[in-house]
Amino acid sequence: MIHLLILSLLQYVIFFNNVLAVKHESHLSNQLQVLISNKHYEMQHVPIEKVDVFKRAFSFKENTGIYVSQFSDYGMTGYAIDKFSESENNRNHYIERPQGMPVKYLIMHYTHENFFNTAQIFTANKSLGQVSSHLVITEKEVEGTPGGILVSFVPENQIAYHAGISFWKNDTGLNALSIGIEHVNKGINIQNKTKKWVHYDEHQITASGIVSSGIVKRYNINPTCVLGHSDIAYNRKIDPGPLFPWGRLYHEYGVGAWLTDAELNSQYIREKYNPKFLIQKT
């Protein structure tokens, strides 16, 4: 009888902890939704500088020519950058993804810029050197956007210019085979001549986990094909940096691959993979 009481108590504790965890994640998700005003849920083709969550970031810039419309996907509500007209076609930084071309990779980045500068770069009116990403997730900025806002710059059925010269396994030029997510984050902050990596925003992590989980399920992306920019362009790029929350994405959202207990052992890694130093080109 005592054993049954103890067992029941343990089951209750486990259940209660699970409920708390679910409530915590739900609370963060709800907070993200509150940041997007319900009264503008049907917002379509509105200048970005007129949208509540972007007003502060664009307070000194009028007539950007960037229009946004709300959309819902992956259980979240976000903003999509509307396609520019034919006369400004160079501001559309993407090309058609060939029919039947598989999406095999999800690539994580940081912007190294605030959201305003990122939006300017991703919609610059130029024919060469275009840069873009399918999705951008904001961080909380003192004089800018709230954290965790989802912004679509490139439709997922199009090829964005986020990977550059890249390769993984037998694939090269991963733009055509991937979805790219940019996280607004400066990467490295220099204070008093000391370089420090910048932490990721909590709302941003939540949004990234929700969206990334949806993407890998939608395209059946292999866990080992959820990568950082530095993985696919190791001699050129360092983003998303060592503070990117890979472990949280894996444990809380089932995104990506993570080390097993054995792989956490340095001796095991040396014996199995025989790692060697590589000289990075400058």
Keywords:
Amidase/PGRP_sf, 282 residues, Lysozyme-like, disordered C terminus, EC 3.5.1.28, Amidase_domain, two-stranded antiparallel sheet, globular, single chain, 6 helices, NAMLAA_amidase_2, 2 domains, N-acetylmuramoyl-L-alanine amidase activity, 14 strands
What does the model show?
- The chain has 282 residues and is of the alpha/beta class.
- It is 28% helix and 19% strand.
- The strands form four sheets. An eight-stranded mixed beta sheet has the order 1-2-3-7-6-11-5-14.
- A hairpin with a 2-residue loop joins strand 2 and strand 3 (76-81).
- The longest helix is centred in the N-terminal third of the chain and has 33 residues, at 2-34.
- The protein is globular, with a radius of gyration of 21 Å.
- Residues 1-26, 33-40 and 277-282 have low confidence and may be disordered.
Q: Compute the gyration radius: what is it?
A: 21 Å
Count, helices = 6
The count of DSSP E runs of length 2 or more, i.e. the number of strands, is: 14
The arrangement of helices and strands along the chain is HEEEEEHEEEEEEEEHEHHH
Shape: globular
Can you list the strand order of the major beta sheet? 1-2-3-7-6-11-5-14
Examine the secondary-structure arrangement and name the CATH architecture of the largest domain. 3-Layer(aba) Sandwich
Distance between the termini: 70 Å
Structural class per helix/strand content? alpha/beta
Strand content is 15-25%
What is the name of the CATH topology of the largest domain?
A: Lysozyme-like
Question: What is the fourth-level CATH superfamily of the largest domain?
Answer: Peptidoglycan recognition protein-like
Number of domains: 2
Largest sheet: 8 strands, mixed
* Average pLDDT for all residues: 87
- Report the helical percentage: 25-40%
Contiguous runs where pLDDT drops below 50 for at least 5 residues: 1-26, 33-40, 277-282
The CATH class assignment of the largest domain is: Alpha Beta
How would you name the oligomeric state of the polypeptide chains in this document?
A: single chain
